[in-house]
């Protein structure tokens, strides 16, 4: 009877260790994915700023052209 309880405890400990290893691997993968997404987001923000600057420049040029045609 004591051996049976010990065997069950041992099995649960082994199962817990396996779960812990899996969880750690998943955590590492998720941290890598998060870092990649953050890098992408930073790049998208840079690109957005560039595009925004170009659009503003084009709008200024169009505005100047409109003002010249009115004169």
Blueprint (SSEs and pairs):
Blueprint (H helix, E strand, L loop, with lengths): L1 H69 L1
Key attributes of the depicted protein:
single chain; mainly alpha; rod-shaped; 71 residues
Could you explain how this protein is built, in words?
This protein has 71 residues and is mostly helical. It contains one helix and no strands. The mean pLDDT is 94.
**Strand element count:** 0
Helix percentage range: over 70%
Largest sheet: none
> What does the radius of gyration come to?
30 Å
The shape is rod-shaped
Strand content: under 5%
Overall SS class: mainly alpha
Mean pLDDT: 94
Unreliable spans are none
The helix count comes to 1
Short description:
This protein has one helix at 2-70.
């Amino acid at each position: 009877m004591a051996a049976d309880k010990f065997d069950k405890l041992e099995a649960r400990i082994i199962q817990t260790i396996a779960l812990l290893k899996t969880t750690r691997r998943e955590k590492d993968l998720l941290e890598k994915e998060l870092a990649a997404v953050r890098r992408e987001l930073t790049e998208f923000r840079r690109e957005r700023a560039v595009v925004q600057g170009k659009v503003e420049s084009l709008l200024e040029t169009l505005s100047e052209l409109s003002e010249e045609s009115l004169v």
